Amino acid sequence: MSDSYDVIVIGAGPGGYVCAIRAAQLGLSVALIEMAADDKAKPQFGGTCLNVGCIPSKALLDSSHKYHEAVHSFATHGIQVGSPAIDIPAMMKRKDKIVSQLTTGVGGLLSHNGVTVLQGKGRLLAGHKVELIDLAGKATLHEAANVVLASGSEPTAIGVAPVDQDRVVDSTGALIFAEVPKRLGIIGAGVIGLELGSVWGRLGAEVVLLEAMDSFLPNMDSQISKESLKIFKKQGLDIRLNARVTATEVANEEVTVTYSVGEQVHTEVFDRLIVSVGRNPRTAELFAEDSGVTVDERGSIYVNDRCATEAPSVWAIGDIVRGPMLAHKASEEGVMVAEQIAGKHHQVNYDCIPSIIYTHPEIAGVGKTEQALKAEGVDIKVGTFPFAAIGRALASGDTDGMVKLIADAKTDRILGAHCVGPSAADLVQQMVIAIEFCSTAEDLQLMVFGHPTLSEAVHEAALAVDGHAIHMANKKKN
Ligand code: FAD
Ligand code: NAD
Questions:
Q1: What atom in ligand 2 is closest to the CA of residue 160?
Q2: Using omega within 30 degrees of 0 as the cis cutoff, is the peptide bond preceding 361 cis?
Q3: Residue 415: how many CB atoms within 10 A of its CB?
Q4: For the segment 329-384, what is each residue's pLDDT rounded down to a tens digit?
Q5: Between vectors from CA 303 to CA 299 and to CA 306, what angle results, nearest 5°?
Q6: Which pLDDT score is estimated for 120?
Q7: Domains in the chain, ordered, with CATH?
Q8: How remote is the CA of residue 58 from the centroid of ligand 1, in Å?
């Protein structure tokens, strides 16, 4: 046996590295195992989120938004910049620099907190032992009182569109295109399809999204989904619902995609195709059969609401377990597990995890949707308020969308908040705080919101719940 720790964490994504740091802060001896290596063969921290997910995609979303504004909106503000040009290598270099700054920063934090980093592939064996295969293929054995599995997820593959990371790419390939595709096809109009479709669409690609479902963003509040679909269509994203891809063929630097909508068969030719149809938990070779860890019917590691697996003192967090595949959910589970190991109480509130799509405008929601509450038979009152009636939104020329608040008709407690509009992510975060503090619509009505701010849309939506929004004609009067 090489060494022994209070905690061994396998995987240094936002779930694993946050868990390791919090456990070390609480005085535990911690080892963190990571198999990904950077170009200097050093451990690459940050997982999907920092390297090929949240951060690089947002860097490109922000760059492409600035370009789009320069082309389409600056003149309306009285700013003439001639005709802006795109420099993709510079855009990519900026993105890579941000990624490197953050991943290096995580390495510094791990070292500052005294976390031992073990480089290589970790595998849980029976009895809290972990086998580590280093980059040279050498195996060593390590032991811990607690083991935390945090190996994340990988893109779902579909047989009809094999990814070659050239013409047919997954989300990772779509973050490193060397030039703007002329025609970009995307299979799956979910979060990744919309975000990366927006990036390349703003830079000039003609974007077609082929979505198998007959409804758009079905997990979001349906009023917000409908409004978002209208906005995207206005922006030129060609979203085709009920589209089942049956074949793809790569030839002559083009991808031909055959798909059907009902009985009708269609063909489209693209110069690049992104496959973004979901992600699968990464559990292959992660644990030995006799380790006691089990998986559920979706291939996720089975855990209870505190992230304990069926094997004693073995925990699992983030994308490999049930719930939304989100970095903030993974991190909070990491903190919860570290604190439980240290004997503290912490329970993630799974009913209050915000979900956000970083398009422009952004789409965000927290709590229950109107359709879910109606299906549960809950008596609700709903208030909506459009950004078109918000002075600050007009001033910045960002008037698409609305805020929607849902309150319990009897108790007035806020049950859900949904938004499509400018800074929706940050506005909904206010509602995370409100829901966590069990606020009522009246609580929000009585608060003073700064003027002129986008937050006034939240205030007005809260007033609209009871029919007394000020800057709009209310349907019901109170
Ligand atoms: P990961 O981040 O996947 O990290 C797992 C780590 O474990 C990796 O470093 C991997 O190398 C390592 N590993 C795996 N197996 C082993 C092993 N056996 N031994 C050693 N190491 C191992 N979420 C958001 O909340 N907001 C966003 O804006 C957002 N944008 C995204 C954009 C894209 C394009 C993608 C693909 C995802 C995005 N996500 C976003 C999702 C987010 O990235 C994930 O939910 C999050 O990274 C999950 O964290 P994790 O720690 O569970 O796993
Ligand atoms: P997703 O689940 O958001 O969307 C996948 C879409 O593909 C769905 O609409 C689905 O109906 C469709 N689909 C599935 N199979 C299909 C097929 N054969 N043909 C056509 N359409 C098909 O998944 P994603 O966009 O791949 O993202 C994966 C995960 O990454 C998400 O669960 C999300 O939580 C996470 N993510 C989050 C963010 C964010 O928080 N902003 C950004 C990117 C990714």
A1: 18
A2: yes
A3: 22
A4: 999 999 999 999 999 999 999 999 999 999 999 999 999 999 999 999 999 999 99
A5: 150
A6: 98
A7: 4-155+280-348 (3.50.50.60), 168-277 (3.50.50.60), 354-465 (3.30.390.30)
A8: 15
User: Residue 364 corresponds to which tokens in the numbers above?
Assistant: 């965000």
Q: Give me the DSSP letters along 21-69.
A: HHHHHTT--EEEEE--B-TTS-B--SHHHHHHSHHHHHHHHHHHHHHHH
Confidence of residue 475 (pLDDT cuts 50, 70, 90): confident
Following CA atoms 448, 453, 458, 464 in sequence, which dihedral angle do they give, to the nearest 10 degrees? Answer: 80
90's tokens:
């510079």
**Bond into 452 cis (ω within 30):** yes
User: Active-site residue 328, yes or no?
Assistant: no
Q: Which residue has the tokens 């451990």?
A: 43
Cβ-count burial 17-34 (b if 16+ within 10 Å, e if not): bbbbbbbbbbebbbbbbb
Pairing of strands 264-270, 129-133: unpaired
How far, in Å, are 14, 96, 376, 436 from residue 327 at the CA level? Answer: 6, 19, 29, 19
Report CA(276)–ligand 2 centroid distance (Å).
Answer: 6
Own/partner long-range contacts of 114-117 (Cβ < 8 Å, ≥24 apart): 114/24, 114/30, 115/20, 115/21, 115/24, 115/30, 115/31, 115/32, 116/5, 116/29, 116/30, 116/31, 116/32, 117/12, 117/31, 117/32, 117/34, 117/43
pLDDT score for 477: 56
DSSP class per residue in 187-241: E--SHHHHHHHHHHHHTT-EEEEE-SSSSSSTTS-HHHHHHHHHHHHHHT-EEET
Please state, in angstroms and as integers, the Cα–Cα distance from residue 283 to each residue in 151, 171, 196, 210, 294, following that order. 7, 20, 26, 29, 11
Q: How many angstroms does the Cα of residue 97 sit away from the middle of ligand 1?
A: 19
What predicted TM-score, i.e. pTM, was given to this entire model? Answer: 0.97
Q: Could you say which of 72, 77, 112, 451 is catalytic?
A: 451
Residue nearest to atom 46 of ligand 1 (CA): 327
Do 76 and 397 meet the contact criterion of CB atoms below 8 Å apart?
A: yes
pLDDT tens digits for range 22-77: 999 999 999 999 999 998 999 999 999 999 999 999 999 999 999 999 999 999 99
Q: Do residues 353 and 365 lie in contact, with contact meaning Cβ atoms separated by under 8 Å?
A: no
